[in-house]
Specification:
The protein is of the alpha/beta class. It is built from 13 helices and 13 strands. The strands form three sheets. Strands 1, 2, 3, 4, 5, 7, 8 and 9 form an eight-stranded mixed β-sheet that branches. A three-stranded mixed β-sheet has the order 6-11-10. The relative contact order is 0.12.
Length: 415
């Protein structure tokens, strides 16, 4: 009887312990993160990379094959190829055209980049689309899209292995000590790269066009780009989030004293890309652009107020300093996302020259767009591929997603 009584006394404690265990298991299930389509796709990416490496092993294309292969987004991490020469690859050039109209103004595309995998695959997509739009130009041999160079800031001007596929020129990248001074801001390599290019023999011998189109890695040309610039009057895009702001008056006056307290009203809402510019104008603005960007980034007040577009402000203020007024094209490019409005996508893609895929396409599977900075059940965002290549075919967006989501996805899969 005593033993039975003792067992009965233990029953409440055992029951409480069991309830705590059940609650713990339920909580673990609730806390378990949901796997979005892009997370599942990331696992598929890694598996595809392993399968491809196992299948091909040490097989490498011949040097002749590497020279003619089409750019593609492939299921592998980029491994630098053996470098047979320290000389930069010649810029891509169209053969001289004859019988073209006198109004034709050929331009050279200058794609600014670093050698991170994140930017390498974007460069391959961009170059693929550039060639596609050049070849589709109704002007044929008289196209104005005549030359291409990927301008790469990498180490001590070290080749990264893509120069056999994409015409490239390598310049020095800022050092880790510099990055500490710039609080890790790598975009500031862009004006530094351009000023180095302008001092090089490559600039004098390989870039023969009078005009340059300055592009970014996450640009996709949606159609052939016409050159509407002239000397002293570059083409530029209007960034609405950079409009005149009295809160910037002191910052801009410090960077541009001659502009006075009203200087902020005379700085255009532009950046260095997308821009089509005469080479003389680029030589005029490059050094002030670099110096202004560095001065802004190392000024705590400017850095706090101008944020991630501070290098763009460096270009805009430099343009005001040297008196270089840009033509403004509000439809130069489109920057769509899942939350894009109907007016923004009206006439897409033919209304625009460039698709800038800086924003995310986050959807629930029923096609409902997610709020900003929320990962959806369907997610298409370049940032998911920061250290590996997207592997086609990437999954299609939900049926009710907007046209830009399908355009971007299919461009990735095609390239």
């Amino acid at each position: 009887m005593g033993l039975l009584r003792n067992l009965l006394l233990l029953v409440p404690f055992v029951l409480v312990a069991w309830l705590h265990w059940v609650r713990g298991i339920s909580q673990q299930q609730r806390d378990k993160p949901r796997t979005s389509l892009v997370q599942r796709d990331s696992d598929r990416v890694r598996a595809a990379i392993v399968r491809r490496q196992d299948r091909h092993g040490a097989q490498q294309p011949s040097s002749a094959a590497r020279a003619v292969e089409q750019p593609s987004v492939t299921a592998r991490a980029v491994q630098p190829r053996a470098i047979t020469t320290q000389q930069p690859a010649a810029a891509a050039q169209q053969p001289p055209a004859t019988g073209c109209p006198a109004s034709r103004k050929p331009f050279h595309t200058l794609l600014t980049a670093t050698a991170q995998v994140y930017q390498q695959w974007q460069c391959r997509v961009m170059y693929y689309q550039w060639k596609k739009q050049r070849n589709n130009d109704p002007a044929g041999a008289c196209t104005e899209m005549t030359g291409f160079t990927r301008l790469v800031a990498h180490g001590d001007a070290t080749p990264d292995g893509l120069e056999n596929e994409i015409p490239s020129f390598f310049v020095k990248e800022y050092t880790q000590r510099d990055y500490a001074r710039f609080r890790g801001y790598r975009v500031i390599n862009r004006p530094y790269s351009v000023t180095q290019l302008l001092k090089s023999d490559y600039w004098k011998s390989q870039i023969r066009e009078d005009y340059l189109f300055i592009a970014e890695t996450d640009h996709i040309l949606t159609q052939p780009l016409p050159n509407k610039a002239s000397r002293g009057s570059p083409m530029a895009y209007i960034f609405n989030y950079m409009g005149p702001n009295p809160a910037h008056a002191n910052i801009i006056k410090k960077a541009w004293p001659a502009g006075g307290m009203d200087g902020f009203r005379h700085v255009q809402s532009i950046g260095p890309s997308p821009v089509v510019i005469h080479r003389d104008d680029l030589e005029k603005i490059a050094k002030p652009w670099e110096e202004t960007a560095v001065a802004l980034k190392t000024d705590s007040e400017a850095d706090g107020r101008l944020g991630w577009v501070i290098e763009m402000w460096g270009y805009a203020i430099a343009a005001a300093k040297v008196g270089l007024i840009h033509q403004e094209f509000k439809d130069f490019q489109v920057e769509p996302g899942a939350l894009s409005s109907t007016p923004q996508l009206r006439g897409f893609p033919g209304r625009y020259w460039i698709f800038h895929y800086t924003y995310q396409f986050e959807y629930m599977l029923d096609g409902t767009p997610c709020q900003p900075w929320t990962i959806g059940e369907y997610s298409l965002d370049k940032r998911h591929f920061s250290d590996t290549y997207p592997v086609p075919p990437l999954p299609e967006p939900p049926a009710k997603a907007n046209p830009a989501a399908f355009y971007l996805l299919r461009t990735f899969n095609e390239a």
